[in-house]
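May I ask for whichever protein you like with its C-alpha cells?
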Amino acid sequence: MTALARTQVADNAHIKLHDITMAYGDVVIQRDLTFDINHEDIFIIMGGSGCGKSTLLKLLIGLKKPSSGNIEIDDVNFWQSSLEQQGKTKQGFGVLFQSGALWSSLTLAENVALPLEEYTKLSRKQIEEVIDYKLSLVGLAGYQNFYPSEISGGMQKRAGLARAMALDPEILFFDEPSAGLDPLSSRRLDDLILELRESLKTTIVVVTHELESIFSIGNNSVFLDAETRTMIATGNPNKLRTDCPVAKVREFLNRGKK
C-alpha cells in the first residue's frame, strides 16, 4: 500500500472530507479521500489525467453526490442537510469554469448581473454598483458593455471571475483557470487570485495541472492517484516537491525540471 504524505489536521477547517468514495455506477474513480481545506487556503487539487480532479470538484460544489462518505462545510454535513439548506450553502460558492462559461449573447455587465437578479432583492441601481465594483476588482472597469467575443481569453476568464464573485462567496472554486491562456495572462490571473485571497479573505479551491500556478498560489493541496484510485499526498505543494516520501508525487511536481 502506498505511503501517504499528510499534514496535521488543522483546527480551522472550512471544508472537511471524510472517507469519500467517488464512482460512476460500479466504476470507482477515487476512494478513501479524507482531508481538510482550511479557511483562506488556496487549495490545489492535482494529479495526472483521469484521476478524478473534475469529479471531486463536482462533489465539492454540490453537483454530484459521493457514493459514500461525508462532506462538511463549516461543520454542516452538506448531503445530510435539507434541500433548502443545501441551496443556501451553495449561494456561498462562486465557481469559475474552465471555459469562463459566459453567455455570449449578454454583455459583461449582464453576465455579472445574472446571480444578483436571481438571488438578491437589490434595486437596479444597487446591482449596477455591484457590477461596476466586481469588474473593477478584476481589472475590467469600463468594459461593462462589451460582449465576450469582443475581449481576449484572459479577459473572459476575469469576467467569469467577476460573475463568480457577484454574491460575495465565502468559497471560490476554479476549474483549470489557466487553460487556454498564454503565460503572461496566466501569471496575471494567478496574481489576481492571490490578491483576492488577501483582500477578501476567501477560501479558494483550484483544479489545475499547471506547475507554475501550483507553486505560485497554492499553500495546501491533495494529490489524487489514478493508479491506486486514492489520495497519496496532501500538504503544501512547495514542500511536497522536495520532501514528499512518495516518489510519484515528487516526479509529478518536478516534471520538466532539469
Summary: The two ends are 30 Å apart (CA to CA). Residues 53 and 91 are 22 Å apart (CA to CA). The chain has one domain: 13-253. The beta strands are 13-24, 27-38, 42-47, 68-73, 76-77, 93-96, 171-175, 203-207, 220-225, 230-234.
